[in-house]
Amino acid sequence: MSHRVAVLKGGRSLERGVSLRSGAQVQDALQRLGHEAVVIDVGPDLVDRLRDTKPDVAFIALHGREGEDGTVQELLEAVGIPYTGSGPSACSRCSDKIIAKQLMRDAGITTPDFFFFSETSFKDLGAGGALADIEQRLGFPIVIKPAAQGSALGIKFARASEQVPSALVSAFSYDRRVLLERYVPGADLAVSVLSTGSDTAPEALPVVQAVPRDEAFYDFEARYGIGRTTFICPAEISDEMGSAARELAVATYRLLGCHGFARVDLMLCEEQGEIFVLETNVVPGLTETSLLPQAADAAGISFDELISRILDSAWTRSAQHAQTGRP
User: pTM of the predicted model, to two decimals?
Assistant: First the structure.
């Protein structure tokens, strides 16, 4: 059946460029599938444009703030338009790295040790006086990141005490709260999870391994710059570790209440033989260098089929609403 699909992309977040590329890929696939794609560059007129175009469903290709923190999902709930991906509560949990990591730690899901601070805690509580203790407990290098940014934006690696203040200043320029996290050396992995039906168990796709060619770490430029990273799928890890990564990704997906699709980023510490969950992305990239399409391809799922399955998740959400209310 053909549908009028509002493709929500762009927006005003720092991930606008990636979102525009994801949205363009989705638009092309929807048209090939026989749907009418109505592209909306998200801005202050979003509600008016949704009312004017009257879409049957919204495909969210909006990365970063508003697209992944539950804001646009809550708005779509309010105006009664079915949409792809996770609901507002799951989005807010996943986009807030502090809440997500606390939930994982409480549930026994392995995640790197961490501490978090607000910008005001340094001014009002003297948090800077605890940095030496944190450095001793976490060890170097320390990963310093904004609490609510995606695509590796704002992440800094402090290799010594004198680098911590500048890394904190950089992270605070992206968010009012920051994480100081233990660095886990090893293989950078990603597991995408699909769950298109309300009665269908989440399916973990093959593990993707990212190997930056020039950069020491898998940062924003390495992630989205064509030719900057070598992607290996399935990852060159043991079958045992691959199964463990997929199981851990599904457990995280369930814990955080995700729906439809998501990507769980992990690190495999080969020395310890342990896998750590870093974060979960509820609107993973759908660009030509993104990991979800690569994993789907390795599983024998074409890009068009992937988009079709993600679109189907909006209708299963609608059915769930009729039975149980909002997710």
Answer: 0.90
